[in-house]
Amino acid sequence: MKFNPVTKELFTDANELIKTLHCPRKMRWTELAVTRDSAHRHCHACAHVVLHTAEFTDEELLATVRADPSTCLYIQSGQANITLIARSPGGEST
User: Fold this and answer.
1) CA atoms within 13 A on the CB side of 59
2) Residue 93: its pLDDT value, please?
3) 3-class secondary structure for the chain?
4) β-strand partners of 72
5) Which of 69, 70, 47, 65 is nearest to 1 (CA)?
6) What is the pLDDT of residues 68-86, one digit of tens each?
7) Closest CA to 47 of 13, 72, 78, 10
8) Are 54 and 81 in contact (CB under 8 A)?
9) Which residues fall within 8 angstroms of residue 11, CB to CB, at 6 or more apart?
10) CA-CA to 29 of 20 to 30 Å: which in 44, 54, 59, 76?
């Protein structure tokens, strides 16, 4: 996956937009309720489940977000399956 920390856009390695991340409540992973599944946490502020992207493939996340566009995602810049980018995959400056 590719993530632009400036625009908050998450792309597949094939440059398909998965989601633009936005949390109006600015919740941190450590503030979310722990669940039985390490790939999920629960947000008490909005009652959504938040998925940790380190536990998913590009295809899994894309399918999940397509099925429910309101899916909340968490990204850590140092996780193994994320490449940070400074430009959109199409080459345009952000």
Assistant:
1) 0
2) 47
3) CEEECCCCEEECCCCCEEEECCCCCCCCHHHCEECCCCCEEECCCCCCEEEEHHHCCHHHHHHHHHHCCCCEEECCCCCCCCEECCECCCCCEC
4) 50
5) 65
6) 998 899 998 789 999 999 8
7) 72
8) yes
9) 1, 2, 3, 4, 17, 18, 85, 89
10) 59
CB 85 within 8 A of CB 9: no
User: Which single residue is written with the structure tokens 């566009």?
Assistant: 69
pLDDT level of residue 92 (50, 70, 90 thresholds): low
Does the pLDDT value for residue 94 go beyond 50?
A: no
pTM for this one? 0.83
Q: Are 74 and 3 within 8 A, CB to CB? A: no
Identity at 92, one-letter amino acid code: E
Alpha-carbon span 23 to 45, nearest angstrom:
11
**Is the pLDDT assigned to residue 58 strictly greater than 80?**
yes
Contact (CB, 8 A) for 72 and 43: yes
